[in-house]
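Before surveying the methods themselves, it helps to consider a single example record, giving the amino acid sequence and backbone structure tokens:
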Amino acid sequence: MYKTYWKESVVYEVYLRSFKDSDGDGTGDLNGLISKADYFSELGIDTIWLSPVYASPNVDNGYDIKDYRAIQHEYGTMAQWEQLLEELHKRGIRLIMDLVLNHTSDEHPWFIDAKSCRDSRYRDFYIWRPAAEDGGPPNNWTSYLGKPAWTYDEGSGEYYLHLYNAKQPDLNWDNPELRAEMHKMMTFWLDKGIDGFRMDAINSISKDQRFPDTGKTKLQANGEPYTKNGPRIHEFLREMNDKVFSRYEIFTAGETSKVNEEDVLMYTKPERRF
């Protein structure tokens, strides 16, 4: 019986910062990872899942990206990353990259420009709303840190949404221009020859655009009924597949919390082209 590699593959997750330090500065790096290529082969590893190595302020261990097309300087250079990919492929080991699509760092150029004025081209790349009638946040949602999910920006006079840290503003996937930019970014990495993506918090990218108050009283992420498995999530994923993933021989794995059995079927049925 034919074995589909992504069903049978042994996947080894690497958190680079603590994996192998090649230069003695106390931080794991790409050269350290390259030096272990034979070790992975000896272990029988088929696929390396590399946690985020993009340029980041590291507020959230690299899950706050300020440049999707650059390598974090502490880890090395793009040339070293390309060498890693080459060395793994020589040994028949695939590489999938961890990708964060729900939010960026507040140091990303898009967000810096979005804050500069309400007429910014990038303003609608993020989720902004005016204050409630009492001057407070637009609704009563909390973040995964247990604090309000909205932060007020004095410069532009509105609140922006962040399901995680205030330094991780959520992207507005309802904006087709944002989606097109993200598709270009994913294509950039796939054209380099990677074998797929692990997609962080992927079922959070579609929000209920009414942004209603929630009746849930839990401290963390009480707005989940309106931020998980949202109204356009399957549309966005199918578009992602049609415009990007289906053009390559890759696999993707999505982090999808707060799902039920019906949701699982919706996300995984092959005929749905995700």
About this structure: The beta strands are 11-14, 47-50, 54-55, 67-71, 94-100, 128-129, 150-153, 158-161, 196-200, 251-254.
